[in-house]
Amino acid sequence: MNLSLAAPSAFRGNLLVPLSRCTSCLELDLRIQHSEGFRHLRPRWSSFKLIRNPRRRVIACSVTEPHNGSDEKEKEADKNGETLPLEDSSEQSIPPPVDAEQINEFSDENKGQSDVQNMDDSNEVASGSPLPGVKPQKLDEAIKIPKETIEILKNQVFGFDTFFVTSQDPYEGGVLFKGNLRGQAAKSYDKISKRLKDKFGDEYKLFLLVNPEDNMPVAVVVPRTTLQPETTAVPEWFAAGSFGLVTVFTLLLRNVPSLQSDLLSTFDNLNLLKDGLPGALVTALILGVHELGHFLAAKDTGVKLGVPYFVPSWQIGSFGAITRIRNIVPNREDLLKVAAAGPIAGYALGLLLLLLGFILPPSDGIGVVVDASVFHESFLAGGIAKLLLGNVLKEGTAISINPLVIWAWAGLLINAINSIPAGELDGGRISFALWGRKASLRFTGVSIALLGVSSLLNDVAFYWVVLIFFLQRGPIAPLSEEITDPGEKYVAIGVTVLLLGLLVCLPYPFPFTEETLTSF
Prior knowledge:
- The protein is α+β, with helices and mostly antiparallel strands.
- Among the domains are: 147-226, Gyrase A, domain 2, CATH 3.30.1360; 236-505, no CATH class.
- The protein is built from 14 helices and 15 strands.
- The strands form six sheets. Strands 8-9-11-10 form a four-stranded antiparallel β-sheet, covered by helices on one side. It has a three-stranded antiparallel β-sheet with strand order 2-5-4, with no helix packed on it. The protein has a two-stranded parallel ribbon with strand order 1-3.
- Strand 4 and strand 5 form a beta hairpin.
- Helix 3 crosses helix 4 (185-200) and helix 8 (332-359) runs antiparallel to helix 10.
- The longest helix is centred in the middle third of the chain and has 28 residues, at 332-359.
- The radius of gyration is 37 Å and the shape is elongated.
- Residues 1-75, 77-98, 100-130, 133-141 and 516-520 have low confidence and may be disordered.
């Protein structure tokens, strides 16, 4: 049996070692590890005594400090590389043995001091936010979280009734706490946030997230100074206005077929752009209602949105708008409300105008002449056309329709591509709100891959996948509380948005043939 005793300096005391596991070997090896500052101190003698006890067998060990008079000899021996032999100590009296509980207390005390030292080493952390989707801020000096603050967070802010902390790690601008979540996440978050505000005011921000490594709840506390919104060199309104003007031009251009075949001739025939004004207004109306839905839902939930950047497209007029969320969203249900409100509003108006286009005759009696096969490009448009037009819709037959159908269809398509579950698109935020961050990342990867394959056959898909990859692939900024699932009615709304996007984008697979009734 080998016994190793680690001590930062010479130690006077007794060590009690149970021998319940020793049967045949009674070989003892006492090793005393000295710290750098005490390398000249050596124990002058040691003694061991086997104590017979009817209940347990122990060895009592006694170690004493060296006499002051022998210090010079030891120093000389150290210089010469010699080792002084231990003097016989058999005549010395052996102090009474110390119980094992005292040794455990001594060990726990040293462990506590070591933990404090480790915490002191990790108090100074790098500046910037560690959370996904939040860009680091350039601060003048590194952020320091005092040890006292961490202890207050562990013992007074968190607790058995909310989140029982088992460990903590430095997390760049703050601290990540691991532990056990007690009760409902939303209620626990409210309690912890109130205690945090009572103790520190608005100095720190709490996040209750899901650890992607083990899917367990974690709490992150970061200084609010790391969460300031990012500023841009160009004023936001100026950039958004510039994109908006280009989008107006592409909306007009898209509704003038004669100019689409020769884009360079547009500048020589600007007067023809006025012919595309009705179609541009209808599509722009659907886009405007879409963005209005976002802003109304954001106002209701306390979410702050930035100025929308409308993205121009000469294929369909516009790819919609990129709208930034400028503050931290409270929870997944609020994110779902904001993200789904825009597409729901856009789909509602677009479907209404599409139905009116199929029902109302063209104002000039001619309308737009298209081949019936065009309705194979959308499952939703093709299904509605087959339902309302019936046998008039035949393969290889040209039909005259109200141009309102084409205009409304373009608005529905813009809503649909924004409903793709990828990145920070409306669909990406909806999938995040419905199924969490990890599922959202998987949806993003699959969607980008499918769009990449589709781009080989469709130029709209090519430009859209480029836009998502460089501007909208995420990650989505963290929510204050990401654990609680949304309510059932909001889940139904989110799933409806995703399904409508699929119906608009997927082709109509059934042939347009004349149906005959067979009597038996």
